[in-house]
Design brief:
The protein is an alpha/beta fold. It has seven helices and ten strands.
């Protein structure tokens, strides 16, 4: 879980000093804290090295808050209701629906129903505009913040907001976004 930093070839440049490695873990009170997606890699190394271990997950997930109200439910087709219900009852997952099936709409309804600060990551300004327009149609109480692309670069922590961000902007500001990312209860990647 330690990699060469692909963005910085040297330890310093005109912008300051940078780590030459990227660490995808922390050590806290004798425990290894790492991203959920790295579990298979970690388990294979532990098995290979014959290390005894215990695993605990401290994912914070509030299922009580996430409810699909009548107003939102009435906007969805039956298959979309099933998809949103699955999103609201899961910690992570993938929505795989053909073009035109309403992935942006489903994601927007799920974000609205979850009542969590949300970051939507997109790679084009067209997708950023599509998410923004969809949220404006359905959202009753979430503020929308556009970051990068057609918007500014406001990385303050989210408060009852959905931030629609270009991946390129977040990548270019990686040293500024920790609190911004940490303030989100949900992150959606639209590719």
């Amino acid at each position: 879980l330690t990699f060469d930093n692909p963005n910085k070839k040297t330890q310093s440049n005109k912008y300051g000093t940078y780590e030459t490695s990227v660490y995808l873990f922390n050590q806290v009170n004798g425990h290894l804290v790492c991203p959920r997606g790295s579990i298979n890699l970690i388990l294979s190394v532990l098995k290979e090295e014959s290390v005894n271990y215990t695993i605990s997950s401290s994912v914070s997930f509030n299922k009580k808050k996430a409810q699909l109200d009548e107003r939102l439910s009435s906007m969805l087709r039956d298959y979309q209701k099933v998809c949103v219900a699955n999103m609201l009852s899961s910690v992570q997952g993938i929505v795989n629906i053909p073009c035109g099936g309403g992935k942006t709409f489903i994601g927007s309804v799920a974000c609205e129903a979850s009542k969590q600060n949300t970051i939507i990551l997109v790679h084009t300004e067209d997708l950023q505009k599509q998410w923004q327009e969809t949220f404006r149609k359905i959202s009753s109480n979430m503020k929308i913040r556009i970051v990068g692309g057609i918007g500014g670069q406001d990385f303050k922590p989210l408060v009852n907001e959905v931030a629609i961000c270009t991946v390129q902007t977040l990548d270019s500001k990686i040293d500024l976004i920790h609190q911004f990312i940490s303030s989100a209860g949900t992150i959606i990647l639209d590719e």
